Amino acid sequence: MNIRLIAGLYGGRIIEGSGTNRTHPMSERIRNSLFNIIGDELNGAIVLDAFAGSGSLGLEALSRGAKKVVFIEKDRIAQKVINNNLKKLGIDESKAQLIKAPVNKVASTIEAKFDIIFADPPFHDPQFSTVEKLFSLLKPNGLMVLSYAGKAEVPTGTEVVVVDNRSYGNAALVFYRRRGAR
Fold first, then answer.
1. Each residue's pLDDT tens digit, 91-109
2. β-strand 171-178 against 114-119: which pairing, if any?
3. Which helix (H) or strand (E) holds 10?
4. Residue 117 β-bridge partners
5. Per-residue confidence at 27, pLDDT binned at 50, 70, 90?
6. What distance in Å separates the CA atoms of residue 173 and residue 119, rounded to the nearest whole number?
7. Mean pLDDT across the stretch 57-69?
8. Per CATH, which fold does 2-178 belong to?
9. Where are the chain's structural domains?
10. Phi then psi for 167, rounded to 5 degrees?
11. Rounded to two decimals, what is the model's pTM?
12. Distance in angstroms (rounded) separating the CA atoms of residues 151 and 171
């Protein structure tokens, strides 16, 4: 399945989907809504695309002005797809890094802090305990967006507050903001 990037530098370009049932690409309608909501926050942002799948969220972020995206993906087929998509779009290592590992294995080892984190775990295995580990990777006032099956109880943490919640049929997005530095 191919995926169309919506707007920005790569807007209209077609990228590969992961081609595996172990990942679920976010629909174009939800991606469009997500990126309209976060808008200007992408300009110059350092972004983490956790559970990256095809990399469509991170690639859309780069297309719309993010400075750099770190992709984390454990599935070998999806890793190959991300690499192919980066090559197809001509994105070099200064703007994109792929970590080939499970998110739960590397979340506590990453030293970088991110302006924006996309967490899009498989709907059949939401891994909310891993999602909670990602909160610590946000910069103060950073934004994390979690995509999940809309009927689940979402994780919370003392270092973040839920600032928005959107429902799209059987899918939902929750937006977390990291509390500012004290």
1. 999 999 999 999 999 999 9
2. unpaired
3. none
4. 48, 144
5. confident
6. 10
7. 97
8. Rossmann fold (3.40.50)
9. 2-178
10. -115, 135
11. 0.94
12. 8
